[in-house]
Amino acid sequence: MRGDWLVFIAASVVVGVVVYAFILTPLVLWRRRSDDLPPQFASNGPLEIGGVIISLLLVAGLFYVTYRREMPVDAVSAHPFQTIDVTGFRWSWEFDYPSGIHIVGTPQRPPELVLPLGEQTEIALHSVDVNHSFWVPAFLFKRDAIPGMVNRFDLTPVKTGRFAGLCTQFCGLDHALMTFTVRVLPPQAYRAWIAAGGRTPS
Fold it and tell me: With the CA atoms of 137, 149, 169 and 163 taken in that order, what torsion angle do they form, in degrees rounded to the nearest 10?
């Protein structure tokens, strides 16, 4: 999605340059008082129609770029490597693995979500009380946890290490403490972690 932002920034710069050019040109050409007035006109059909058409094309182009980039992000594989249930609650997180590993955090002891490098993991995101938001800044990804529904998305880590995660939807008193960590392990180390019930060191 970073590329999407770059496209929007570039479009904004171009539009800004054009708008400021229209503002500054009259100030430069007619900056002094005189008896000679600048050209006057009540309407300019081609200019007005052209402005509308260019604006519509710009908006349609940005919509198309956004649509093309968001579809792969929202796509969910029919055959992921694994599915992990992630539940947000006031004020921490709970991670349930298909192998039976169950991790529950507290505001004072944030939990750690462990993922395998290069494998596609489906996250089934839940909330048991109010709206929360699952955000991992390093992954450039955020998704809301909404009571009564399950949000599903895929994560495929491309780099090992530990990455900070947090809730970005204000959810009450200890919202600021509703954090977690994502630890990405090489596939062999991940299998060892699963085999040991989630108790092996990194």
Answer: -20
Enter the tokens of residue 160. 């090992």
Q: Are 94 and 53 in contact (CB under 8 A)?
A: no
- Residue 170: name the closest of 91, 112, 85 by CA: 91
- pTM of the full structure: 0.69
What is the three-class DSSP state of 34?
Answer: coil
CA distances from 138 to 44, 162, 182 (A): 50, 10, 10
Distance of CA 73 to the CA centre of its chain: 9
Q: What pLDDT, in 10s, does the model give residues 18-55?
A: 999 988 887 887 776 666 676 777 788 888 898 889 88
Pairing outcome for strands 121-127 and 82-89: parallel
3-class SS at 102?
Answer: strand
